[in-house]
Amino acid sequence: MPATVPGTVQQALLAAGRIPDPFDGLHEKEVQWVGERDWLYRCTFVLPDDYQAAEQLALQFEGLDTYATVWLNGVEIAHSENMFVPLYVNVTDSVRPGQNELWIVFESAVRCGHALEAEYGKRIIWGEGDSSRVYVRKAQYHYGWDWGPVLLTVGPWRAISLLAYEGRLADVLCQPEVAADLASANITISAAIELAAEQDGVSCLLQVYDPQQVCVSELTLTELSALDNGSYRFQAQVQLDQPQLWWPRGHGAQPLYRVLITLQDSQGSSLDQYQARLGLRRLELIQQPFADQAGSSFYFEINNIPVFCGGANWIPADSFTPRISSERYRQWVQMAADANIAMLRVWGGGIYEEDVFYETCDELGILVWQDFMFACGMYPALQWFQDSVRAEVEAAVRRLHTHPSIALWCGNNEDYMHSWPMGHYDAEFEGELTSITFSGRQLYEHLLPEICAQLDPQRPYWRGSPYGGSFANNPEVGDQHVWDVWHGPMRRYQDYPLLKGRFVSEFGMQALPVRSTIEAFTEPEERYPLSRTLEHHNKAPDGSRRLAVYLSDTVRNASDLDSYIYATQLVQSEALAAGLRGWRRLWQGPGKEYVSGALIWQINDCWPVTSWAMVDYYLRPKPAYYTVRRELAPIVVGLAVQPEQQAAVWAVNDTHDALDVRLVFQWWSLEGTLLNEQQAAYTLSPHQATELEAVAFDVAQEYVLGVRMYQEDQVIARTTLWPEPFKYLSLPEPDIALERGATGTLSLQAQRPAKGVWLTSDAEQVTWSDNMFDLLPGETYHVTTTGLAASSTLQVDWLRS
């Protein structure tokens, strides 16, 4: 069968019609045999004429998934046991003129994992997958997760190249450091030089170009340090005055410098080149005690400005990652940026993402919390395992360290959190970590931080997510995963503000995807709530039951599929808003950075599924996407019920300047009568939330409180507060009038308050400036669209009784 590289066996089998699409219906079960077999990839190639004259030839394998043995012309030349470790193999003596044959045999990862488990013992995992996965350096989500299928991919998942050279640059490091006063920057540049034969007069030309592509520094190095293995090494420093600083999105521009290194022979001809883009910024993780609360802060300060990190967790965007195109990566990251997301956390059960992902984050100013690839398990610390991890992490840090978007290296996902209640994490233990049950501590507390300190010393390292010292999921120290809502005791989503942590790195609520996505994987007879296919496409073991609880707590029963979809999506929207709104309120300025980040679980999916994602596999936003966009806007106003028949009022100003604003408060009956109206003026300090005076709100009375924030005559933020739970409300028809403008602008008005107005169209590629919003009488709400043709139909829905 023909196969593509990069690619997987599953993709080749799909293209050949040999397996059904595992994303469709229940077919996932029918393809499990693929991951249990061994597979042979083979190809022939003719050595080009200009390659035959080269002094050195090498094969570069950027990623083999996972247990692979490589033969060239019948001779074994390489072996891989880690899908994250690239291989560089000198084949000068193995290739021949004319036709060459390359073979790669991939052994079953699950069978190899079981053999290791039988040899070294079964280890504890929690939640997901086959327990042998902790021995296998393979993307852990391939074994299944509570949002993804079991699809044990196999194959050359990244590119394979044949290289010819007389000399090459290797192990390049470009380590920038911005001075505390931001007035200068120093870039330390080093690299190894491998020469095919001894040469005199070899030099390196270092050039640094500013964001306008003007060369601002040029240096030629002629004295190189010889190494024991016959190669050479150089190190140099470049000083820049008044650097153009890289800022996170919403705080400034994202200028990128370019470093160009040219290896030259004695005649000045180029032997090899390396280039990288750098963003110059000063980044610190600030952890300092509070004067008025227990615990300490956990926030990122960039260019001496504290930054609230509202954002989301990122998982691989496909179960078959080689088919994610560069354009699709850019679309995903752009969607995050359009939702006002400041940070994406690359979760530790996936992959070290493709270069284009980080490049786009660099360009758009999105910070990246980068996990190393360990998740939910007691990983071993056997010497061979540590050696493999060292090679993996060194390769990852070397490849990714130039990206200014990466704010943090993090050791793992939830290993400390789960080990602590099981009694396997003793923070006071100082003995031999390799001998304890939680031996992964050897990796997270010694091996990984040592590598990061050596290769990327200016970027902070954090042991795990979550991690809080002696108490792994500490609400007062470090970062926290807040899962008392949905998991655990299934607390009300309205309790999110009470479940605060210094940096909330996971929280979320499930919802079904939009109907067109459901239709992509179901037959018509399976399109009803809780059908067999729908439940198969919810990988949380008790996902439907937990969804039912939150639906029952919030809205009236939904009997048809469309009502069920809407109900789950409304609950997800309200839950995420409750968390973001409540936690941003606690970002209160210098010395009061009580909550400094909130990362939603999750932004994306790896297949079409009911999950916690805000945007489904096909890049179709759920309603929560628009709710999150509003809640993470630079300027927001918030309301919350508090005792004594009052509502607390606050506002967030995440800009660099103080704002003078006017708030208009309106109390509306459900029947559309304006009961009261008040106004007040305030000044909002920059980079923080400001508590404002409370106003009347009686939860026993069925009326809606709306707040509109004005700067001069322009509404810059708005919010509403409804009596809850919604299921008790008898909601009259809001009589929504919709007018379509010639340029795709929609104007909406309502005679009575409308909750959760949701606009859809039969046009597939419509984008909306806003959606899933509340409408109050007396105002015209404008929504701009693209891709909405005049002939396209429009559907307007809202929360009905």
UniProtKB/TrEMBL annotation:
BP GO annotations: carbohydrate metabolic process; glycoprotein catabolic process
Protein name: Beta-mannosidase B
UniProt-annotated location(s): Secreted
One GO cellular component, as annotated: extracellular region
Quaternary structure (record): Homodimer.
Residues covered by the Mannosidase Ig/CBM-like domain: 646-728
Domain Beta-mannosidase Ig-fold: 731-787
Family: Belongs to the glycosyl hydrolase 2 family. Beta-mannosidase B subfamily.
Pfam families for this protein: Glyco_hydro_2, Glyco_hydro_2_N2, Ig_mannosidase, Mannosidase_ig
Organism for this UniProt entry: Dictyobacter kobayashii
Keywords assigned by UniProt, alphabetized: Glycoprotein, Glycosidase, Hydrolase, Secreted
Occurrences of domain Glycoside hydrolase family 2 immunoglobulin-like beta-sandwich (ranges): 168-281
